[in-house]
Amino acid sequence: MRKLRVLDLFSGIGGFSLGLERTGGFETVAFCEIEEFPRKVLRKHWPEVPIYEDVRTLTADVLERDGIAVDVITGGFPCQDISTAGKQAGIGEGTRSGLWSEIVRLTRELSPRYVIVENVANLLSGPSEKRGGWFGRVLGDLAECGYDAEWRNIPACMVAAPHRRERVWIVAHAKEMHCNGCDDYPCECMGCWPLSKLGNDGRSVFVADADEIRREGKPERQICGVGQVSRGFVRGSKGKRIQWATEPDVGRVADGVSNRVDRLAALGNAVVPQIPELIGRAILQAEHGP
How confident is the model over 242-255, as a mean pLDDT? Predict the structure, then answer.
């Protein structure tokens, strides 16, 4: 079975590629990252994979001249203008989050089988003056490129991290692709498509689901194998109550290490690799069956 070839945009330190490659069904054929420190990390772990520096100058012609073919585009495009922690300037021209348009351009030029996108959960609801306008723009752009999309808010706690770190994950697939076992497209069998395969496995529920369980007075359920949900806390294996954090505290990771600021920035911008791995396994199942 040939592996799906990945163009990893806004690569950071390679969380997308690490997760996808752990499935055994994907291989990264090129990175694109503008910051020098993450490029050092990428060169260390993927010494044979070319790294392009500026997504704005990366084109299908450049990739073709370098002998690179692509099946999957991934990208966690900049969130500064979308996040509730920023000014929420949006994804228009001239904003950092407006680099979303470069993913759209490369999707048109390369026509990959899949496009996998990650960003902060506020992409779904902003801007405040037109709720859902940003996400509508994203879906509209993908539709104009000939892609349908599925999406979910998948928090880090779903993969056993003791913090929320909520992010929206989008998997877009070419409209002409047929579902496994279905004769027509579009079909009603959404179980044929990747994110529909990320259902609860008996061990995990989304944080939002856990909150709903508490409101309804249902028995507590385990979240991601880390403990029991109880009034906004996780109850660990020894009964200790640990309050949920919105984002992880990564300061201790880099204590006493040179380039601390660069390392913290790289860690803070990284995706949780286990989530691309889940998505990658779902894609492979959708492509090849159980």
Answer: 54
Task: Provide DSSP, 101-131.
Answer: HHHHHHHHHH--SEEEEEEEGGGTT--TTST
* Confidence tier at 66 by pLDDT (50, 70, 90): very high
- The pair phi, psi for residue 5, each rounded to 5°, is -90, 125
* Whether 224 is catalytic: no
Beta strands in the chain (DSSP E): 4-9, 26-32, 51-52, 72-75, 114-120, 147-153, 167-174, 222-223, 227-230, 233-235, 241-243
Give residues with Cβ within 8 angstroms of 22, minimum separation 6: 273, 277, 280
Place of tokens 């993908």: 142
- Which one of 79, 145, 157, 224 is the catalytic residue? 79
At residue 247, the pLDDT reads: 63
CATH of 4-199+263-288, one of 3.30.1490.20, 3.20.20.150, 3.40.50.2020, 3.40.50.150: 3.40.50.150
Interstrand relation of 72-75 and 114-120 (parallel, antiparallel or unpaired): parallel
Whether 224 has a pLDDT exceeding 90, the answer reads no
Distance CA 117, CA 114 (A): 10
For 157-288, list the strands marked E by DSSP. Answer: 167-174, 222-223, 227-230, 233-235, 241-243
What's the rounded Cα separation, in Å, for the pair 10 and 74?
8
Handedness of CA 123, 101, 32, 16 (dihedral sign): positive
Cβ atoms of residues 14 and 20 within 8 Å? no
Using 50, 70 and 90 to split pLDDT, how confident is the model at 46? very high
Domain boundaries, the chain: 4-199+263-288, 207-254
